[in-house]
Specification:
This protein has 14 helices and 8 strands. The chain is an alpha/beta fold. It has an 8-stranded mixed sheet with strand order 1-2-4-3-5-6-7-8, sandwiched between helices. A hairpin with a 5-residue loop joins strand 1 and strand 2 (about 90-95). The longest helix has 26 residues, at about 10-35. The protein is globular, with a radius of gyration of 21 Å.
């Protein structure tokens, strides 16, 4: 699951429910112990609520999905560079595939880390030099000391990754917020388009504030100022509490429901759903809240027409985080673009339909060369 404005309320409700069930179970057991509640049924009910809080995922996950043939894992590379940035953050950059291969830089979305590219790393690294990096504050990249989580900061970090990618022009691949970072990179470093950067792949992403291109955008836009932003600011302060709530929802399995609804279409495997759920729980809520606040200020609409290199726009046909209309707009505005729709596919089509995704990326990269 990605930390995006459209699913914040669902995530918070799931977390509050998790706390409520645990608190209710403890209360019932205490009252039964004090003999205020009499009967075995109260003991059983309290035990079920407490046990569900810490082990519900072992029941809900098998019920939701069946195991697949190749399930994702936390695959890391032994070829690593650590890039120190002026703001105190340190970027984890990993390399896969032949050193003389065409370099492809993969920028992940907001919430997980670079291990979300498990399938792409396996399916593309036989012929490409696949380069992945953890966004600051996620995975193995440390967060900036000045708490700057703006998309402009990430775009400058991406420029530092491009600088160590080798002599060949790179192809930038960005999923969700990673695609937003790529668009900002194009605005900040236009001189690199066509020289250092040969092509661009925008995956399930948007060109403007994601509140405007998500499902129920009219309602979410109305809630942005009075509800979403205040809770995000509150999260930056009370992040340990929100992190505890997140882990409770992961352990009881309710997090899988939010992951399913926001990212998948129902054809994902048990391992893919489990992997996405764990990635969702690993990110610090304080970091995620700051990055989400930055997304609310994002707008690169005017940048689209200035991108003078080949661009591939990839979109899951059932994506609700960035609806296909966002891809339609980008396809229409970008001078040299093509569009691939993944069916069936949601916001996490790169995982759910990984073979379709890898084929689209491979074909486009071959065309750029």
């Amino acid at each position: 699951m990605l930390f995006m404005p459209h699913n914040l309320l669902l995530v918070w409700l799931s977390q509050l429910l998790s706390v409520g069930v645990l608190g209710g179970g403890i209360y019932i057991l205490y009252e039964w112990y004090e003999r205020e509640l009499v009967g075995t049924s109260y003991l059983v009910a309290g035990l079920i609520m407490v046990l569900w809080t810490f082990g519900g995922r072992f029941i809900s996950l098998p019920l939701l999905r069946r195991p697949g043939v190749e399930e994702p894992k936390f695959m890391r590379s032994k070829t690593v560079q650590r890039l120190s940035r002026p703001d105190g953050s340190v970027l984890q950059v990993e390399f896969f595939g032949p050193e003389d291969g065409q370099p492809i830089i993969l920028s992940h979305g907001w919430g997980p880390n670079s291990t979300v590219w498990y399938y792409a790393k396996r399916q593309l690294s036989d012929r490409f030099r696949v380069i992945v990096w953890d966004l600051p504050g996620l995975g193995k990249s440390s967060k900036p000391k000045n708490n700057d989580h703006s998309i402009e900061k990430y775009a400058r970090d991406l420029e530092a990754v491009v600088a160590i990618a080798g002599d060949k022009p790179v192809i930038l691949v960005g999923h969700s917020m990673g695609g937003m970072i790529n668009l900002t990179f194009c605005r900040l470093f236009p001189e690199q388009l066509g020289s250092r950067v040969a092509g661009l792949i925008l995956v399930d992403t948007t060109y403007t504030n994601p509140v405007k291109t998500c499902i129920f955008s009219g309602l979410v836009r109305k809630l942005q100022k009075p509800v979403l932003e205040p809770v995000l600011y509150l999260t930056t302060v009370l992040w340990p509490i929100f992190w505890l709530m997140t882990w409770l929802s992961y352990l009881n399995g309710s997090l899988y429901i939010t992951v399913e609804l926001s990212g998948f279409t129902g054809t994902e495997t048990r391992g893919q759903l489990s992997f996405a759920g764990l990635l969702s729980a690993l990110g610090s809520p304080g970091v995620l809240a700051r990055g989400t606040l930055a997304m609310l200020k994002f707008d690169e609409t005017e940048t689209l027409a200035t991108i003078n290199i080949p661009v591939l726009v990839v979109c899951g046909n059932s994506d609700i985080a960035t609806k296909p209309v966002a891809s339609d707009r980008m396809k229409a505005e970008l001078p040299y673009s093509q569009r691939v729709t993944i069916k069936p596919g949601g916001h996490m089509a790169l995982m759910e339909q990984n073979q379709q995704f890898a084929k689209a990326v491979s074909t486009f990269c071959a065309g750029c060369l």
